Fold these 4 entries.
Entry 1:
Amino acid sequence: MNEQELAGKIVQHLEHGLDRIKQGTLYQLQSARNAALDRYREAPQPVFGLAWAGDMAFRVSHSRHVNPRNLFALGLLLLSLIGVTYWQVVVQANDIAEIDASLLMGELPINAYLDSDFEAWLKRSSQ
């Protein structure tokens, strides 16, 4: 069945029910249809702004997932991630710099240069 046949059957089904509708109801439907067509034919008024912004703001504000508890949890998670990143980058970099400076100044013993665990691993893996 193509689109034309489907449209014909829908029109036929809708017109079949017209015989049972009262004259007053038909008049109201016709006047509502004419009013809608008149409004449609009027020149559209320009609207400035993003078309999706209002709808998106409505959906976000009325979402069941966006509530103060979830926003607080998200903020806490972001702050903790920022804190961990800061600790890894700044604090550990300072520790490495202190170790390097101690090695260069000769404050660490010679054993600090040796990796005894690596040598033990080599011995175990060769056996």
Entry 2:
Amino acid sequence: MTIFDEEPEKKPTFHEVGSDLSLLSVDEIEQRINLLKVEIERLEKEKESKQSSRDAANSIFR
């Protein structure tokens, strides 16, 4: 096997809060921003679902 057979090192497709951003390209930063926006949306939906469940439970036990 030669060095040409090896795949180039891939950068992670996730974002770690506080990680060094200086080595990322503008496109990579944009990808991470989009990834985080999708994750925020997912978290907000879960929060709403849990809040609805909590509100329903509170209305029963009041």
Entry 3:
Amino acid sequence: MSFIDDDRPQKKVAHEIGADLSTLSVDELKARIDLLKAEITRLEAEAASKTSTRSAAESLFRS
């Protein structure tokens, strides 16, 4: 392996819902699980933020 191979950008880990998982190693599957858990946390935080913003706006207009 040459030093040129080391300069290539690493492919970002991504997951496509419904993708074939049979070719992935256990480590790759665990990496995808971690990726999806982080995404769920991000989505939940955004939903909570939007809910609190909406609640604040509704209480403002009720007064």
Entry 4:
Amino acid sequence: MTKLLIYILFFLGVALINSCDKEIQTEINPPTENLYFPPIGSTEWLTTSVSSLGWNETELNNLYPYLEGKNTKAFIILKRGKIVTEKYFGTFNQDSLWYWASAGKTMTGLLVGIAQREGLLNINNKTSQYIGTGWTSMPLTKENLITVKNQLTMTSGLDDGITDKDCTLPSCLQYKADAGTRWAYHNAAYTLLDKVIENASGMTYNNYFQQKIRDQIGMNGLWIKTPNSNNVLYSNARSMARFGLLLLNKGKWDNTEILNDNLYFESQTTTSQNLNLSYGFLTWLNGKSSSMAPTLQTIFPSPIIPNAPADLYAALGKNDQKIYIVPSQKLVIIRIGNAAGTPQFAVSGFDNELWGKLKTVINY
């Protein structure tokens, strides 16, 4: 009840803020011309000045103590691929590694698209085609309703109310509803996409990630299996920024096609089902008329981040790991660290609070 009240107050609050703010006009999915891509195998990364962008430098400087007070370890803003600001706090530095938490879901979503483009799988096929039957404790007729696309969209129908939501044992994967009829933020169903990719490709998940994305865009990073079988990606902040830049350019790194499937990328970054309008393929979407939050079945009449541009989409992880992409502004913004407030999965009140401050910096 307490958690429900917190979410309700948060979404009601941001809905009120949104109604009072002047409507922000944004161009949806504009071309991403004139982007800069930092070289692979180098620490070189071109910068652009705040003054050249016409941003408010005073407000940007005021942002840093706020971020530090919110347990931030690293914060990066890219404009057209160039670094506007890159700040580290405490002992954290450019080489420090940190966990992505559920922000890594968006990486998995892109890897599934690559595997489909390579003809290794089809997201409309049932999951059991790739990992075998009996992967749940559901009746076979119900299990066979679950497709890879249901895993991507959080509509597997598996019960997210069990004690260990990360458990991928069949005994933990229990029937709640028919696939496609209920949206629920469920880690276990998502985690098994790793196995789908491994079995479809014949490669380990780390090797597939390294060959298809990591080494192609010059990032570092490694997926580490936790004791509860959840795969978590670790990297430095600049690697997160490189991935954000890849997303900004719709799956293409400079002249190299990483995904090479515009239809899939569009599906990943637009509403994927009619249950939670603010969710694509393992990616959070802003600017929608309603949204849902992890752990709740409540539909809130508000976008996830009213203070942010409507075309923003994001990879969001527990304890406020953030990769924000704003195509209309050619922006990528990275925030990693400990929880900025009460620990939450993915979306939190910090998102809207931070973007309220970013509005005064960027003047969009």
